[in-house]
Design goal:
Blueprint: E1 2-6, E2 13-18, H1 25-28, E3 36-41, E4 54-59, H2 68-81, E5 88-93, H3 95-107, E6 113-118, H4 121-127, E7 132-137, E8 140-147, E9 152-156, H5 165-178, H6 191-208, H7 223-232, H8 239-256, H9 262-274, H10 287-294, E10 306-308, E11 315-317, H11 322-331
Parallel strand pairs: 2-9, 3-4, 3-5, 5-6, 6-9
Antiparallel strand pairs: 1-2, 7-8, 10-11
Length: 332
């Protein structure tokens, strides 16, 4: 078992990684908890046992769960259960579940404890770590949310064995970005160590910038185009697949701006190919619409802003020329 910590002072918390890590659940329940509300989705098929009184709440499938109306229903259910500020919400599922369970926990009674048991690769290396929670509105993904750190995270790598191949590959889209955040050679590690290495990279970034003031935005590498593709909504893309296309796009933009050379661009292509990830825009993309959606990105405070690779690694680059962004989209 690999044990890590997200170091945030009094709000630090453990992350347990490995086969059968779910067996650690009982030991991670914070002291003083008298009732537990489990939040999950039907079909996940994983349950946790506790001697404490508990209830189970099922979210709608997919992104339909990431709505304010769902959070309202969930909080009403918590009230019906009699949850108090000292009690615990446990999210069991992928990134959708941990996002919604975490956000509901952040607003119910102005904040109660939450523990995550992510069941997807994407959830284990990204969504469940770092305290970002949120739901969508028609204007964009995750535009309503809160920073709410969990009291612990359990990453059981055994549960990943049952993931459909495409779901697992989607997680690799998020994992690919860590290659460019100090994770060179991730593809050479066993799965447990690969997951733990990604978590350690994210924990270090979160510890330095908990609320995405600067360096934490680097974790959004590839996400500006990815979110635009997801909002556009006409394409059969999983989140990690969209991120992979976004990483390729960001590398091409960086190369067009002279920030990286051909060898570095080739390394991006190699990493995406290792994980069998897409690198081209889906057919039928509307370049004008994607450009408009770039302007809605949360980073776009000083012109069109992207996380781009460069001589010193990834950095947030404001004011990227519109003609360059448009030209690269057209080439893809």
């Amino acid at each position: 078992m690999i044990r890590l910590e997200v170091p945030l002072g009094s709000r630090s918390y453990p992350v347990v990684v490995g086969a059968s890590a779910l067996d650690e659940f009982q030991s991670l329940i914070p002291s003083g908890v008298s009732r537990i509300a489990f939040v999950t989705q039907r079909g996940i098929g994983i349950s946790l046992e506790s001697e404490l009184p508990s209830s189970v709440h099922f979210l709608p499938d997919g992104e339909e769960a990431k709505k304010l109306s769902v959070v309202e229903d969930l909080c009403s259910a918590f009230a019906g259960d009699g949850l108090t500020r000292k009690d615990l919400v446990v999210g069991i599922g992928g990134g959708v579940v941990t996002d919604v369970a975490g956000f509901a926990a952040s607003v119910y009674h102005r904040g109660i404890q939450v523990l995550h048991a992510p069941t997807t690769l994407l959830g284990q290396i990204d969504a469940a770590i770092g305290g970002k929670t949120g739901v969508n509105i028609p204007e964009g993904k995750n535009l309503i949310g809160a920073f709410w750190q969990p009291s612990g995270v359990i990453c059981d790598t055994d549960v990943l064995k049952s993931l459909p191949e495409r779901e697992f590959r989607s997680g690799m889209g998020e994992l690919a970005k860590y290659h460019f955040l100090g994770g060179e050679g991730l593809d050479e590690l066993p799965l447990d160590e690969r997951v733990a290495a990604c978590i350690q990279i994210k924990a270090d970034i979160v510890a330095a910038d908990e609320r995405e003031g600067d360096s934490r935005a680097l974790l959004n590498y590839g996400h500006t185009l990815a979110h635009a593709l997801e909002i556009e909504g006409r394409f059969d893309l999983r989140h990690g697949e969209a991120v992979a296309i976004g990483i390729q796009y960001a590398a091409l933009v960086a190369h067009a701006l002279g920030r990286i050379d051909k060898a570095r661009l080739s390394e991006h292509e190699r990493v995406l190919d290792v994980y069998d990830l897409p690198r081209s825009l889906p057919e039928g993309c509307d370049v004008d619409q994607l450009m408009e959606l770039f302007g809605r990105d949360k980073k776009a405070m000083t012109g069109l802003t992207f996380v781009l690779d460069g001589p010193e690694g990834l950095s947030v680059v404001p004011g990227v020329p519109e003609n360059t962004l448009r030209d690269v989209l057209t080439q893809m």
